[in-house]
Sequence to fold (267 residues):
Amino acid sequence: MGKDDYASLYLQLFDGSNDPQFILDAAANRFIKVNSAFENLTGYTKEELESGLVLPSDLKLPKQPPREHTDRSAPQDGKSAIYEYHISTKSSEVKILELSMKKIELFDRQLKLGSARDITKRKMLEERLKEEIDTQKQKTIEAAKASVRIYQLTEKIRNAPRMMNSLLHVEDVDSLLKESARLMNDDTGLNYAGVSFHLIEDGRLVKKFPPAKGSEAEYDLAKSASKYAAVARGDEQALRDATGELIVPIRARNEIMGVMSVRFDRE
Fold:
């Protein structure tokens, strides 16, 4: 076979290939030749592409998504490079292509020989699978957290009688509050992040535990705008603020004796 025969055979293989193929003029950055599969891929005719009416830059999306676009290697003479490329077809359909390109020199011209593969469906499937995997991971994490919470609650219920028995032996209010706070904070008890108690004395709401000084030590029950005073007055049944602190009234025979503040671990 002569050179002309090989050239004719190559053109037949090029035109008849099921894979979209193209040849670019590297300097002019325009299509020299495309096959029918490339026409079908882009929606443009051979005449539009090979005449220079439609340039490679016209197909490329203005901004390639950085997460999707991967340049595995720069094309070198005689070696192929693989690109992930986003294009817009003639009908404005966005497609994701995997391009294989090789630099060649022919008749003193720098050319790029390339083939394209439409991987849009594959990328969409990968994205959907990734989302499903992330969802399942999150569900697994939430289920694990729920199991831990159930276990912790079970332990609290199991320890309740022991904690109550330890409070029966205290002799005064201060000792009762101190021991209650210890049990509520202890990891073998209720395991709260923090507990404090305020009691009403002579029209004032006094912080009994832990001890405090200054403006946090006591509040004028009638005038104070404090969240603790609001619950102690009965303005609020209970309060939970943005930090997760919960304030509830302490009652005895339906009378509010003070308030208890509980701080929970965020986890």
